[in-house]
What we know:
By secondary structure, the protein is mainly alpha-helical. The chain has one domain. The chain contains ten helices and four strands. The strands form two sheets. Strands 1-2 form a two-stranded antiparallel ribbon. Strands 3-4 form a two-stranded antiparallel ribbon. α1 crosses α2 (26-50) and α7 packs antiparallel against α8 (182-208).
Amino acid sequence: MSELSKRILFSIIAAPAGILLVYLGGPFLATLLSVIAALSAWEFCRMARATGAEPFDAAAIVASAAVPLLVYGVHLRLFAPTITHAIIAVLAVIAATVFRRGVDRRPMAAAATTITCVLYVSLAAYVLDLRYDDYVVSALGGTVLATFPILLTWATDVGAYMFGRMFGSHKLMPSVSPGKTVEGATGGLVLAVLVGWLYVSYVLHPYAQLSLRPIATVVFAICVSAVAQIGDLAESLLKREAGFKDSSTIIPGHGGVLDRFDSLLFALPVAALLLHALLIPVPV
Length: 284
């Protein structure tokens, strides 16, 4: 089976399964996000070690996996974490470098990569924030809202690929990602705006009883598309420093988990911030 066939087959199976788990929500969605975060953390630590750093792999993986579960616990009002809890966790990592890394094993790099890993891959938990937004009135509405930035990220990828193949001539950032072009990036923005407008009009409004004003829809789509492309470039930069082509080979035809979710990790928190500010409840 060719790599393209593997990629298509995986997408056909994974996309509906992912949407179903978002719809089911609760522990099903929290577990999915926990697994994604744990695998992403493992890949991140592999890349970090390839650069000479020695992150605390086990701690990073466990902490990353725990964040979506903790976020779900907050939704259930089982926990009430504060900034102090996060500060203590950071201090624990720094303290661990004293006893486990010492002067000769790059303690600053160990602490920095461990903390960055958890903060970075745990952004997947923002799916829960959108799924249970205060304006959401049903499981279907929560699914529609949580899927919105995911769809825009996908539209950005498709638009960038199509426009890049047809019109690409000016390299966007060749030292980081040689294949990306200015024309492709522009095409990603354009398709994201088009898909965003259609989604708000024909999906978000009728099925989630939510909407965005026209100018807000354009601003939202552009912002999500732009940060999604930055997220893609950011992971490309990490891989280039580590000397990796893919973050791993876990997903058939796609590479690693980070390779699939790099754009979304940047897009989700920005989408959540903007949607909280721009959403309008519109009962049907």
